[in-house]
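Fold this complex.
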Amino acid sequence: MSILVMKFGGTSVATLDRIRRAAKRVGREVANGHDVIVIVSAMAGETNRLVDLVGEAGQGSGPLYDAREHDAVVSSGENVTAGLMALTLQEMDVPARSWQGWQVPLRTDGAHGSARILEIPREAIDRKFAEGFRVAVVAGFQGVSPEGRTTTLGRGGSDTTAVAFAAAFDAVRCDIYTDVDGVYTTDPRIAQKARKLDRIAFEEMLELASLGAKVLQTRSVELAMRYGVTLRVLSSFEDNGGEAGTLVCAEEDIVESALVSGIAYSRDEAKVTLLDVEDRPGIAAAIFGPLAGAGVNVDMIVQNISEEGRTDMTFSCPEGQVARARKAMEEAEIEFRAIDVEDSVAKVSVVGIGMRSHAGVASQMFDALAREGVNIRVITTSEIKISVLIDRKYMELAVQALHDAFELERAS
Amino acid sequence: MSILVMKFGGTSVATLDRIRRAAKRVGREVANGHDVIVIVSAMAGETNRLVDLVGEAGQGSGPLYDAREHDAVVSSGENVTAGLMALTLQEMDVPARSWQGWQVPLRTDGAHGSARILEIPREAIDRKFAEGFRVAVVAGFQGVSPEGRTTTLGRGGSDTTAVAFAAAFDAVRCDIYTDVDGVYTTDPRIAQKARKLDRIAFEEMLELASLGAKVLQTRSVELAMRYGVTLRVLSSFEDNGGEAGTLVCAEEDIVESALVSGIAYSRDEAKVTLLDVEDRPGIAAAIFGPLAGAGVNVDMIVQNISEEGRTDMTFSCPEGQVARARKAMEEAEIEFRAIDVEDSVAKVSVVGIGMRSHAGVASQMFDALAREGVNIRVITTSEIKISVLIDRKYMELAVQALHDAFELERAS
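Structure:
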């Protein structure tokens, strides 16, 4: 019997009506011959309500309150949805039961609040499938620590739960039902011509996700890539057929890779330059160590050519972290003349597996931006991505121009 | 180290402020040198909300939906409170942690929705006390079945959880914090002179509880009696000292038993008489078997003197069950001339351990009612209780007259 994993996010199970709609989709897959593992999030808003209660109860300790109790409380939202989904399936004569993390047991490490999955033994659920159950409804986002306490996997952890189950049970596919109908070439709110992709490679998805296309949790994509789990992203709110949504899969499963798959952006960036830093071995560590210590998420890093043992060091970080970055630099043991901050910049990136074997993408990108008069402040490149920092006011223009230049509105 | 069990009901943990107030009481007992096991209910309203969700999800099956899923969902309310209480105690520098049913584990049978406790192993919690934890916060109302599913003990099950923990841990006492400040000689809404009892015997409490003084769940009192657990009922909302509330204890712990401890009542009763029934061996079974089968809660039973092989059989039951009782009788294999129903009656009972060794209580009761012109329809007696069925319109009058007659406003 082939096993299919289906994951429903919080908006997809926000009410009993929506749970029923989701259960119908599950029933259809059962009728198609699958045994199904359903991973559910808490009903929309419930996790926030519980997190708020915990925060208020532990407010005297600030963020230092006992994460084990946080997890014990917050995980209950998924338990509720799992039971309701199992009942709803039973109402449709689909043999189903719910599983909480400790019942599977989904074993994690003891890092409460952001636990990592160690093991998902198949025995208990396999036995139920053998007895004739067709659906295991699993509470997402939670597991059990070596000490027997309930853990949570961190925000978005239900995606990770789903992929981990798909890997453990050799599932034919892991379908992620959410409130968007797939992965787009760029944000449709910015470029009207944005097109839904039929397929995208794991590597591209990772670059798009970490750059702001918040469809899938990054960790779940990494996990899917490592274990070769084919993901499908699709909407709970549309009557999509078998080939709907976007398939996130291995590169070799994409017959004809597009040169460029998508345009990502990140709006609220700042560009920070340390002017006239001494250029000596270890200077990068002396700068970025303290920044990491201060919790600054440094993204792009560019070092200019050195002259007479001095250089300029430029990096980007979220605009809201500039004050922290400045303080960290002033307290660090480095010499520099001044800090220059430009805080109204944005990052735009072109992502595509195809550019690995194609040289012209960068120049094509710079041409397109030049034609629109967009000045490029910083450039960084990776194997499948080229990112530029530009004035924030040109961000939408740049995304649209690049979408046009690479003809992303047309299926490749 | 002496262990104290403290149980807080739903209204006592309805908000974070109330949880803090409860936690302060726990902190005081810890300062007094106790290790404390705290049993918590769900925040007021939460269990109803979850029960409603389950009922709606399973509505197609009526009451036949999967009780295991009901329990999986409904038990989550207590998990939330337990975590919040543990956090709140930690904020007050009291070393505490939460325990869910499966973590203890509190083992029950598999009767989901009304499971019975089989075993509470001490090891895990004892180990934590030995490590320096001073408080174990346990989610009430729940356990784990032999199959590893979460079970619930039925409504009011948190009282039972508390008593079971007190028995398993040889607790010095089990304090039940609720929204009343103790057990009264009768309902203060009916008799203004009603007085809070300092002590009451288990047997008396059972008679009062099953007769309508809904302070403690009957099952928890039975359990306390069996294991000799001293219960104390007291209010969460008053600043009561060490001797406040009502102690529910063994008869031998009450130095001077009062003749009568309390007056109980039950308003919505009906009196049903089968006229001219054949009087043969097995006739009682032929009548009350079908009534039990129809779900009629028969309370008092009186059989009149038999004449010429015929008799009248009278019983009382809740007024709402009269139609069911009538149908069951008409379909039963018994011969009778007619059914006579009086449906505006009420039951008033005098309860007291002292009457075991005292003969005059019944006549004193009948005298008091006669002085007020209250006609008695049915009388039944047990060792520590005398109950009468009277016209409902005289109920308040009867309760007040009896309260006066036995001088219950005065401490014995």
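Residues 3-179 of chain A form a domain with the Carbamate kinase fold (CATH 3.40.1160.10).
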